[in-house]
Amino acid sequence: MGRLAILAWAFLGLLLLSADAEPARRVALVIGNGTYAEAGTLANPVNDALDIADKLRSIGFEVIEGNDLGKRELERSIGEFSDALQGAGVGLFYYAGHGLQVDGRNYIVPVDARLDMPVKLQLEAVPIDEVLDIMEQQTKVSLVFLDACRNNPFARSLSRTATTRSATALAGLAQFDSTRGSFIAFSTAPGAVAMDGTGRNSPFAAALLRHIAEPGQSINDMMIAVRRDVVSQTREGQRPWEQGSLLERFEFVPGEGPAPKPKPAAEPAPAPQVAALERSVGDDKASIEQFLRRDYLTPDTKKMAETVKRIYGASATIFGTRYDADAIVKVKTDWFAQWSSWSLGLEPGSLEITPHGEDRADAAFAMRYDYVPKDKSAARLTGKARVTLGLVKAVEGWRIESETSQATQ
Fold first, then answer.
1. Cα 354 from Cα 335, distance rounded (Å)
2. Residues 45, 282: Cα–Cα separation, whole Å
3. Cα-flanking dihedrals φ and ψ of residue 206, to 5°?
4. Which of 27, 166, 213, 374 could disulfide-link to 118, CB 3.0 to 4.6 Å?
């Protein structure tokens, strides 16, 4: 072998050694969509995306980020992400905002989407599995985090306009059919609805931010900690879930030895403080139950504007989105206009009150419902739901500050 050939092989060996010594690049695409043209504004997705992007940068990720993206902007960001993944070892996609499933396929909803008819879905929304496919083709490890299960009007409008031959939109997201070397984390269980949160971040994003950078912790252990925090914060109203096909252990921050025990989401309140909180609401549990039976479960639908003002005040957060009184009036009016008769009932013994000071409390309870449609060809709607209300005590009585519910049967 000639001298030039020997030098060439030696140089190639140095390059290979350097490549092995250098840690694999980790690239993330982080999107937060909150300001929708036709679906109102979600309070937290942009905050969630900004904070997650900063956290990922702090632990060595290259981050491509975008917020409040329309369809074309979103597609450009995905294209930029695809280019950046070349030669990377790990790809991560985080999305917060509206998402929906149609016929078992999950879609991201851009902020400029007009989804009044199912046939527009392919033109207006972006299938999440296409992003996952780009990642799986270019990286050994593909990580997806979807805080995209907010209950949203797109799913409702698509379902109303769907025919027997068109797709039907459902709440929440569906499982992915197959994955290759991937880990997919959902902010809540398949088909269920996640909460947007009342602070800066959603419950899911807040838990991720709290645990993602713990050294030596596997991604599976991280999700256990995240799930525990979210279940606690939402009083079991939301349960994160994951599916995956990773072949090797993955740690966001490598560490030696066992990972430290995760800290709880919040330190339990001292016993005297808990007792004081309980006393602050005390006998008001009876007044809350009266409010539910007299006002919330039997609204005066003939005077909807007055009803909403009495029950919700000037505004309220419903399924994570802030609505003013006029918007709530329209939503409630349109809903009850579908039914020739209806009844709502409080399941005996189900009411649980959690006090938050002298004038605030959370009320969680099981609600029975029975709606008879005006359209004789439509099905009767009956069942039970788990309802959680954030209540504030005003001069005239209790008022709803936030509202979520989830069907239980």
1. 29
2. 36
3. -60, -40
4. 166
Tokens of 297: 């479960």
Q: Do 124 and 176 form a contact (C-beta atoms < 8 A)?
A: no
Please check whether residue 89 is in contact with residue 24, taking contact to mean a CB–CB distance below 8 angstroms.
yes
In the block, residue with structure tokens 């695409």: 29
Phi, psi of 203 (to 5 degrees): -55, -40
* Residue 29 contacts residue 78 (beta carbons within 8 Å): yes
**Of 143, 308, 325, nearest to 223 (Cα)?**
143
Percentages (nearest 5) of helix, strand, coil residues in the chain: 35, 30, 35
Triad 286, 287, 291: Cα angle to 5° = 120
Per-residue DSSP letter, 111: T
* Region for residue 361 given its phi and psi (left: phi exceeds 0; alpha: psi -120 to 50; beta: otherwise): beta
| Cα distance between residue 274 and residue 271, in whole Å | 5
Q: Which of 90-99, 110-119, 275-284 has the lowest mean pLDDT?
A: 275-284
Distance between CA 177 and CA 80 in Å, rounded?
26
Q: pLDDT by residue (tens digit) across 125-136?
A: 899 989 999 999
Are the C-beta atoms of residues 331 and 355 closer than 8 Å to each other? no
* Residue 164 near residue 203 (C-beta atoms within 8 A): no
Q: Is beta strand 169-170 parallel, antiparallel or unpaired with respect to 99-102?
A: antiparallel
Tell me how far apart the alpha carbons of residues 108 and 162 are, in angstroms, rounded to a whole number: 19
**One-letter identity of residue 344:** L
Per DSSP, the residues of 176-225 read -S--SSEEEEESS-TT--B---SSSS-HHHHHHHHHTT-TT-BHHHHHHH
> Got the DSSP string for 251-297?
BSS--SSSPPPPPPSSPPPPHHHHHHHHHHHTTHHHHHHHHIIIIIS
Task: Specify the pTM.
Answer: 0.57
- Determine contact, residues 197/206, Cβ cutoff 8 Å: yes
Tokens for 303? 């005077």
What distance in Å separates the CA atoms of residue 302 and residue 298, rounded to the nearest whole number?
A: 12
Amino acid of residue 386: R
Tokens representing 170 are 């459902």
Q: Please give the pLDDT value at position 205.
A: 94
For residue 146, give the H/E element and its range: strand 141-147
pLDDT tens string 230-247: 888 888 778 888 888 888
Give, for 382, the enclosing helix (H) or strand (E): strand 381-394
Rounded to an integer, what distance in angstroms lies between the CA atom of residue 309 and that of residue 330? 13
Contact 105, 127 (CB under 8 A): yes
